[in-house]
């Protein structure tokens, strides 16, 4: 029996089963080993290029498969990169892909919220450039055993770093109905959060909540199988739980809070976000005009060509800024060139 057939056994309508089937058709059952299509690679490199002097040190806060770091190291032969990831599997893939750059790249298994202390341990006070490509990678979503996708049966885990911390199932077990609903509402921006939380907790109490497909089934029981605006009914709840399990917004806040201290004056930061909660935090941080001169008023989005080739790029928003001295005023030189004259979505 396929995953699609397993998805909603016993669920009332045939339409529901049919819907799951067609949804499943978009997915390959056997994802490739570690394939992550880097989003807005050229734009991130361009945003950081003006500070890629000889001897400059950059931080890639989310090295993942290594796409952005590879682009930086290839384009700027005299730049070194400190590459972070909290996921051992991603770091392993990046190490392999970037082996040819030798000691120009240093890998650190860490959360980027700890950027300041990690750099201090490496004896680095400030860096010239920082990039961050937020959220999860395609391999993390595609690997059923990580439990991040509602399309693949796996444990309800969702941790990016599997060496510790609470899984999504443990989180659901610990929270009350109301607390769970709040998380689904705030992190998933899901209006039907109360109904969903009740249904998920009921499934748990009935011993019917072991796998991601059980979780999806509980969500569909609460809100029905209909896609709203082309979005799977489970999308928002899965996103919310993943954000909570990995403290994604707290991590981003900690990074944004530390950046003014770890980026040298004149240094640059480029952050790619994939949903409004993240983008709002980045936007707000860059509004501190004593600290940052944003490279553009509006975030840059992927070209039509990239968006049609890579669905993940469709929701990407790139914000970049120059670290300035208080009172220096906006330093915008090079900004328009760096963003190819664009900057508007
Ligand atoms: C979108 S992927 C990066 C892809 C990469 N830019 C590339 O092109 O291959 C995001 C990566 O960030 C990592 N990550 C997410 N949050 C993190 C955090 N708070 N600290 C460190 N790594 C994090 C994830 O484990 C994942 O590997």
In short:
This protein has 345 residues and is α/β, with parallel strands linked by helices.
Could you characterize what this model shows?
With 345 residues, the chain is α/β, with parallel strands linked by helices. It folds into 2 domains: 10-19 and 162-245, DNA polymerase, domain 1 (Orthogonal Bundle), CATH 1.10.150; 41-137 and 248-338, Vaccinia Virus protein VP39 (Rossmann fold). The protein is built from 16 helices and 7 strands. A 7-stranded mixed sheet has the order 3-2-1-4-5-7-6, sandwiched between helices. Residues 1-31, 331-337 and 340-345 have low confidence and may be disordered. Bound molecules: S-adenosylmethionine. S-adenosylmethionine is lined by residues 36, 38, 62, 64-68, 84-87, 90, 111-113, 133, 135-137, 160, 251.
The assigned structural class equals alpha/beta
CATH architecture of the largest domain: 3-Layer(aba) Sandwich
Q: Gap between N and C termini, in Å?
A: 44 Å
Give the percentage of residues in beta strands. Answer: 5-15%
Low-confidence stretches: 1-31, 331-337, 340-345
Indicate the percent of residues in helices: 40-55%
Return the CATH class of the largest domain.
Answer: Alpha Beta
Strands of the widest sheet, in order across it, are 3-2-1-4-5-7-6
Strand elements, count: 7
Could you describe the largest sheet, including whether it forms a barrel? 7 strands, mixed
Q: Which term fits the overall shape?
A: globular
Q: Number of helical runs?
A: 16
Query: What is the CATH fold-level name of the largest domain?
Result: Rossmann fold
Compounds present? S-adenosylmethionine
* CATH homologous group name of the largest domain: Vaccinia Virus protein VP39
Total tally of structural domains = 2
Listing every helix as H and every strand as E from the N terminus to the C terminus, the arrangement reads: HHHEHEHEHEHHHHHHHEHEHEH
Q: Radius of gyration, Cα only, in angstroms? A: 21 Å
């Amino acid at each position: 029996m396929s995953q699609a057939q397993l998805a909603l056994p016993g669920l009332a309508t045939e339409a529901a089963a049919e819907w799951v089937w067609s949804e499943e058709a978009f997915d390959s059952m056997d994802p490739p080993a570690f394939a992550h299509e880097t989003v807005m690679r050229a734009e991130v490199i361009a945003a950081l290029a003006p500070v890629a002097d000889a001897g400059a040190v950059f931080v890639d806060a989310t090295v993942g498969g290594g796409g952005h770091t590879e682009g930086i190291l290839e384009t700027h032969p005299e730049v070194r990169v400190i590459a972070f990831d909290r996921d051992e599997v991603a770091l392993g893939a990046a190490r392999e892909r970037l082996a040819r750059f030798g000691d120009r790249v240093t890998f650190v298994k860490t959360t980027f919220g700890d950027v300041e202390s990690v750099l201090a341990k490496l004896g680095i006070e400030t860096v010239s450039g920082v990039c961050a490509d937020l959220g999860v990678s395609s391999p993390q979503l595609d690997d059923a055993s990580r439990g991040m996708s509602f399309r693949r049966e796996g444990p309800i885990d969702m941790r990016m770093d599997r060496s510790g911390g609470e899984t999504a199932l443990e989180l659901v077990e610990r929270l009350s109905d109301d607390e769970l609903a709040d998380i689904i509402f705030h992190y998933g921006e899901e209006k039907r959060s109360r109904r969903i939380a009740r249904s998920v907790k009921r499934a748990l109490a009935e011993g019917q909540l072991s796998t991601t497909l059980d979780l999806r089934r509980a969500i569909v029981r609460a809100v029905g199988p209909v896609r709203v605006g082309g979005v799977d009914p489970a999308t928002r709840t899965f996103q919310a739980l993943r954000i909570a399990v990995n403290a994604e917004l707290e991590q981003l806040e900690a990074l944004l809070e530390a950046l003014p201290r770890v980026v040298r004056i004149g240094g640059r930061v480029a952050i790619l976000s994939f949903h409004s909660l993240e983008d709002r935090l980045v936007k707000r941080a860059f509004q501190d005009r004593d600290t940052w001169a944003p490279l553009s008023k509006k975030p840059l989005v992927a070209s039509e060509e990239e968006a049609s080739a890579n669905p993940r790029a469709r929701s990407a928003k790139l914000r970049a800024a120059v670290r300035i001295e208080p009172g220096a005023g906006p330093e915008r030189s090079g900004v328009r060139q760096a963003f190819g004259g664009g900057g508007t979505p």
